[in-house]
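Late entry, written up from scratch paper. The run itself happened at the end of the previous shift, but nothing got recorded in the book at the time, so transcribing now.
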Amino acid sequence: MPEEVELKLVLAPEAVAQFRRHPLLRSLQQGKTTQRRLVNTYFDTPTQRLRKNHIALRIRRAGRQRIQTIKRDALPGQSGWVRGEWEMPLAADVPDLTQLDDAALRSVLLPRRGRLALQPVFVTDFRRTTWLLKTAHAEVECSLDLGEVRAGEATVPICEVELEWKSGDRKELFALARQLNQDVPLRLELASKAARGYALAAGQKPVPVFSQQVPVDAAMTVQSAFAAIAHSCLAHILANFAGAQAGGEAEYVHQLRVGIRRLRGALLSFREVIPRAERQHLGTELRWLLQEVGPAREWDVLLANTLQPVRKRFAHREGLRRIQALAEAQRMAGYARAEKSLRSARATGLLLQLAAWLDAWTRQQPAAQDEQSRLPQPVAELAVEILERRHRKVRKLGRRIRKLSAEELHQLRIEIKKLRYATEFFHALWPRRASGRYIAALKDLQDVLGTMNDAAIAEQQGHKLELEAGAGVEHDCGLLLGWISAHLRHDRRHLRVVWQRFARLGPFW
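Output as recorded:
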């Protein structure tokens, strides 16, 4: 399958002039800069058969030329920057599918019965400035695209940089992106122009994206299974990054944190086969990003889960209104911190590091002389070892469930979260009926311990708000802290019930 390897980087309109002047474009440029207007019409059936099969079909007009391009997105669990691509010249603005030599594509685009009733769905219209860049070991085409996507009367802007690998060492593609990002704020984006066009045509607004089931199966090696898991986690992070960066809906921040934690969990689960220095470096950077977005989420939880019901119950208390105003200010400060960090070169640099590392991981060949390498082995054996290790640790910590301190409960929550992530990564290796009750019991445990952890953090926040509010609200702060304490006692009793439910279950693997 012919491949296109391309990084898409979103650029703020006010940074366009700065990008054009970037010294790398001059120092690495080969030949002249080119500019041209590109108008692309995307086609699909009335039922959007192509979109459902992760295929985009367009006809591009560039001057008098007509070029038909078919692109196939990466499959779930694969690199989002690698797509299948087929191009051919056309004589008219009508798709021609008769010359396809790819059997999988032909089965979708040329069904045995009837023909596809293709019709225009949306248009992308932009001006492209292109530089051919040559680094020490690779050639990369750099394009700046400025224009819009149109679907009927609706439009969304296009302002992005595309870096397409042409030849040489693919690591140079990611290194070049990181160099550009040091001076011009960029954001790594997996959604193609086609994906944005389909969303525009359907009138869909951006929404937070939840984690997807990882396509791990028994035929996979350790290497390919980790690649699928890690790519899925990175896609989850990137899908929520822009929304969290904009400081809008709280769920974006929550899902971003879940994506980061799942990826950290994957690095820990596969630590046996990942070089220690690489794992520690990536883990440290992911922990930094988690800490930067954490306060925003914590103040969201306090306001929604504690202050809102307390104020509803004691609506007449003026002091609670003052406390809520202080909490709102803390929440805004938390979101300002998160936004600053997510817009930083460090955050985008981390995502590009992860993308480069995963790209190299996916393509590496275990050394022929390394007979002990587990990378080419079936993943099932390692999966059992990981699940067994995590399961034993949770059971050991939970034996004294009635007497665990707050610190020990916090550690149990972390270990249960690691076990749940590992279980969700690997459960498809076994029949669903075997794993279903186990995952449900883990979820119940994680929910109760998560609520207790939120309450413990809320208690700390309550004391902080009491100090900030000053005199006159002592009774109101007492109401707030008393509410938290009562819920902690209730959750502690409920924890014993859900723990017993889990303890009665044996491993499903």
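The first strand starts at residue 3 and ends at 11.
(Scratch paper discarded after transcription.)
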